[in-house]
Amino acid sequence: MSVTLIFLAVIAAIAGWWLSQQRMLSKPWLEVGQHHDTRPQGRRPIEPAKIGLGVFLAVVGALFTLFISAYFMRMASTDWWSTPMPKLLWLNTAVLASGSLMLHAAKVSAERHRDDASRTALIAALALGLAFLVGQVFAWRELTDAGYLLTGNAANSFFYMITAMHGLHIVGGLVALARTILTTRKGPIGSKGTLSITLCATYWHFMLAVWIVLFALFSGWANDFIDLCRQILT
Amino acid sequence: MVDIRSGTDRALGPAEVEDVELYHPHSWWTRYVFSQDAKIIAVQYASTAIAIGMVALVLSWLMRLQLGFPGAFAFIDAERYYQFITMHGMIMVIYLLTALFLGGFGNYLIPLMLGARDMVFPYANMLSYWLYLLAVLVLVSSFFAPGGPTGAGWTLYPPQAVLSGTPGGKDWGIVLMLSSLILFIIGFTMGGLNYVVTVLQGRARGMTLMRMPLTIWGIFTATVMALLAFPALLVACVMMLFDRILGTSFFMPAIVEMGEQLQHGGGSPILFQHLFWFFGHPEVYIVALPAFGIVSDLISTHARKNIFGYRMMVWAIVVIGALSFVVWAHHMYVSGMNPYFGFFFATTTLIIAVPTALKVYNWVLTLWRGDIHLNLPMLFALAFIVTFVNGGLTGLFLGNVVVDVPLSDTMFVVAHFHMVMGVAPILVIFGAIYHWYPKVTGRMLNEAMGQLHFWVTFVGAYLIFFPMHYLGLIGVPRRYYEMGETAFVPASAHTLNEFITIVALIVGAAQIVFLFNLVWSIRHGREAGGNPWRATTLEWQTPETPPRHGNWKDLPVVYRWAYDYSVPGAPEDFIPQNQPGPDNLTRETAT
After folding, report:
1. Which residue of A204, A226, B79, B415 could cross-link B469, Cys pair, CB 3.0 to 4.6 Å?
2. In a 3-state reduction of DSSP, which class is residue B268?
């Protein structure tokens, strides 16, 4: 569970930093009047949807961290053989990363009011997302054809389960992206449309980061890092 | 004299929080059924939770009948007994307590107490309730599934949970239970995002974090914890579903079942325990923190005194929330672990007692020389303090490895956790319902029925659970369907069990009086008016009672903290949070 504890420590640090800005030491019983609100004036507050997405990503992060924790703990058993990674996963990673780039381009274009460029980039991102999912299914096929079945070994089970979980999150992202494409289809992309695109982009970057961590985990590179951590701890 | 800040340096206009555009329902269906109004959703959550809670209450009756009068009721066989235990525990902890505190009170109180019109994502909020209802329905459906519900115990430990020796293990029971939990967690996440972001972004102008009522602090912190802890249960559920349906070996070691070697091998049951308790221990505080917050507000309001040590109370809530993530393995002392781990987890467990004790002292000091009104909310709040101290003290026993190991599988543990996270939070729920019912319905609950309900519940709970400590100390094991012929259990223990069962039946019946009161008072209760308790917090200052969709005409502006009771020189013994009032009317000494 040490991976999870490290993740929680990061969350706790963020929460602690935020709380430190909130005048937790003030004495509210002595303060009457409305002038003690520290929230910025004039400047618009951060959109609730952005904060909402941030909190949601923390939850998703916790979910995948726990899967990774479980992976490491199960790995300690003697019946563990790592699953070989299909070469196709490299291509999938590239596809997912270019989806991320496309969404970033869509966001930047929307902010600069180049609406058509933004729309094109959104559709390209959607196509890349679908391509990633198809690629993942092909990677699964490659593994099953080579005899690495779900129940064959715990490493295989984890690979299929965690990639499926990641895929489900990508599907959710694609639904949101499709909705954004539909709502921004006509007329100029206003601030609401730009916000939707920004949220999609943030989500996509996050899922890309999660995928890279997972890929490193499955390929075994993360093990060396963990071994190092173990040595430091013991 | 302490420095009092004056209000002239940075005066702000009132409309700093932008008004939001509300969703306006067009039909009866979208107004009362598929409603996006947090208040309606709160009532839906609460009614569903109470309904499923009644099922769990009946299950506890059936268990007690078996324990008090073994074999007297033929239909309670060993399998059914374990199914009753499992469903009782799971329903009470998750589908009643968590849903009622966060989904019920959270939805009702967060927007109103913070001066918001609604939650920030009303649509997700609505989905949250319907997923919760679906989870409850899936859970209930397992009673009617072939093989019945799972009998694995509420902790669902593998491998036994998915083997044929356990009721529902090879049938539908465990699958339905795991699916229901997954649905619940997805639904809760939607609601939880709402509660957190509403607290962060939806507060009225002037409502700084340190002016929030402690109820909101409790619910907010508990929600943050739940958002981070529930994923652990989700992971455990998904992995167990894979083991059960697809034949993987995450948790399943090599096992011979009925003389047949199963295809599983190498899995780690301890891994499940880690995941489960990583969720399970924070869950205790997910239930306790809202209770702490609510009880602080009840005590302050009904003792007409500001809460003692408000800052300490806030810090304690945050510290308890953080610490509760590093104590989970104290539930696993008997699972076998490195002694140093046991030492670590015993230490963190005992450290939690410090902020918790601090809260208890502050409640008592708030009562000290207060103008205590012994009305129903106050009675329940007082009962909570006593019960929580009792349950907390036995927690100190069990937190130590050497004491826990011999007591772990006895009724002592049952007594401990029922006192600390069963009876105590339920008492707060009752107190809170008596307190806020007038705001929800516009009418008071009947006092006579309430008094009957309180005294039977409070005294009865002690008559049930105090003797259980004793049973545990003489070694009566928990989870046993029947004791049989046991040399170390004296005959008097059986008499005691009969006594406990009879009291449990009576206490359960008292809850029916409460339910009747809830329904009866909607029409026949005394008119309450907008602020019957003369309370300071914003929910009592709404222009209408019950508050209409949107809560406010103009968004309120907050000028003071939530506890300005009995301020010297003030014309009344309370000053609402949204009353500007002259600056010199404030406390001159720090408490």
Report:
1. B415
2. coil
For residue A176, with 0-12 CB atoms within 10 Å meaning exposed, 13-18 middle and 19 or more buried, which class applies? middle
Residue B337 contacts A, CB cutoff 8 Å: no
Pick from B86, B93, B89, B106: nearest CA to B46: B106
Closest CA to B371 of B296, B302, B289: B302
> What is residue A40's predicted lDDT score, i.e. its pLDDT?
59
Question: Which residue, among B259, B343, B354, has the nearest Cα to B312 in the 3D structure?
Answer: B354
Average pLDDT over residues B412-435: 96
- Core vs surface per residue A128-138: b (16+ CB within 10 A) or e: bbebbbebbee
Q: Look at residue B570 in the predicted model and tell me its pLDDT.
A: 86
Higher pLDDT, B8 or A208: A208
Q: Map out the domains of chain A as residue ranges.
A: 45-233
- Give alpha helix (H) positions in B242-369: 269-302, 310-323, 339-367
Fold of A45-233: Four Helix Bundle (Hemerythrin (Met), subunit A) (1.20.120)
Q: What is the predicted pLDDT for the residue at B487? A: 82
Q: Is the peptide bond before B159 cis (omega within 30 degrees of 0)?
A: yes
Point out which residues pair with B261 in neighbouring strands: B256
Write the CATH number of the domain with boundaries B41-252+264-541: 1.20.210.10
C-alpha angle with apex A169: B239 to B271, nearest 5 degrees? 20
The shortest CB-CB distance from B559 to any of A26, A34, A151 is to A34
With an 8 Å Cβ cutoff, is A232 touching chain B?
Answer: no
Q: What's the CA gap between A35 and B6, in Å, rounded?
A: 9
CB B277 within 8 A of CB B177: no
CB spacing of A30 vs B207 below 8 angstroms: no
Convert the pLDDT of each residue in B19-56 to its tens digit.
667 777 778 888 888 999 999 999 999 999 999 999 99
Report pLDDT for B340.
86
Using alpha carbons, select from B110, B169, B179, B97 the residue that is nearest to residue B138: B179
Residue of A5, A28, A56 with shortest CB distance to B211: A28
d(CA A218, CA A155): 8
Peptide bond preceding B547 in cis form (omega within 30 of 0): no
- Interface residue B306 vs chain A (CB under 8 A): yes
Domain boundaries defined on chain B: 41-252+264-541
Is residue B195 left, alpha or beta, with left meaning phi > 0 and alpha meaning psi from -120 to 50? alpha
Angle at B15 between CA A190 and CA A31, to 5 degrees: 135
Question: CB-CB: which of A30, A35, A46 is closest to B586?
Answer: A30
- Phi first, then psi, for residue B458 (nearest 5°) are -70, -55
3-state secondary structure of B261: strand
Contact A30 B4 (CB under 8 A): yes
Chain A contact present for B485, CB below 8 A: no
Q: What is the mean pLDDT of residues B380-402?
A: 94
B227 and A32 within 8 Å at the Cβ level: the answer is no
Task: Give the Cα separation of B232 and B497 in Å (integer).
Answer: 37
How big is the A-B interface in CB pairs under 8 Å?
A: 187
Mean pLDDT of B490-517: 95
Which residues share a beta bridge with B256? Answer: B261
Q: Is residue B43 classed exposed, middle or buried when 0-12, 13-18 and 19+ CB atoms within 10 A define those classes?
A: buried
Task: Burial-class residue B260 by CB neighbours within 10 Å (0-12, 13-18, 19+).
Answer: exposed
| Rounded CA separation A89/A217 (Å) | 13
